[in-house]
Structures are given as structure tokens and as C-alpha cells.
Amino acid sequence: MANTQGRDFLFCHLCGTMLTAPSPKYAQCPLCKTKRDINDVKDKEISYTISAEDIRRELGIVVMEEQKVQLSKVDKKCEKCGHGEAKFYTRQMRSADEGQTTFYTCTRCGHQFQEN
Ligand SMILES: [Zn+2]
Ligand SMILES: [Zn+2]
Fold first, then answer.
1. Which end of the chain, N or C, is less surrounded by CB atoms within 10 Å?
2. Ligand with an atom nearest the CA of residue 111
3. Could you give the number of structural domains in the chain?
4. Which residues belong to any copy of the TFIIS-type domain (predicted)?
């Protein structure tokens, strides 16, 4: 599971844009042009990801892999900075016993916390 976890290296550390790999030697941010040496990232993963992406684009397939995240704002006190507004979404856990978990992200400091 967790196919979107642990892939921060695919995103620009400055602006968060998804990096492209115009050359096998480096990855580049299309927005701010920051380059990252491919050795800085796990090349096997990035090449796999890029090729999968290319294939999809080639075939015109739009794959909705993203979590279905519905962000809404709610009056919720941030447990870290005390700010009174957070964005939240809920996710149903696999086990029925666990019910629904609500995830909050503070709109001020970005702190993430959750609540069952
Ligand atoms: Zn960037
Ligand atoms: Zn906060």
C-alpha cells in the first residue's frame, strides 16, 4: 500500500513542483529550474515512475491514483499553535472497528493531526 508515500524526492524542494527528468543525469523542476543530480534521488524509482508516467501520457490514460481527499475548512483548534482553523478530510479505515479517522491540517502552521 502507500504508493504515494516516500517519494518526496520527486518533488522540487523549493516550490514543490513535480520534477521532470530531461536527462538521465539529472532531474529538473519545470517551474524554478532547480536541478537535482539523479544520484541524489533513487534512480531506479524515478526512472520507473517517469516511464510509467510517460506510458500513461502516451496512451492518453488519466489514472486517478490520488487519494480522494476532500479538503474543507473547519473551526478546529490547532494543538500546536492554537490557531482556530484547519482543513480536514476523513478517511475510512480498512477495519470497520476503527471507523472513520478525521485528519486536520492547520491553515496557519501546517501542523497535521488526527482524530477518531
Ligand atoms: Zn521548483
Ligand atoms: Zn497550527
1. N
2. 2
3. 2
4. 74-114
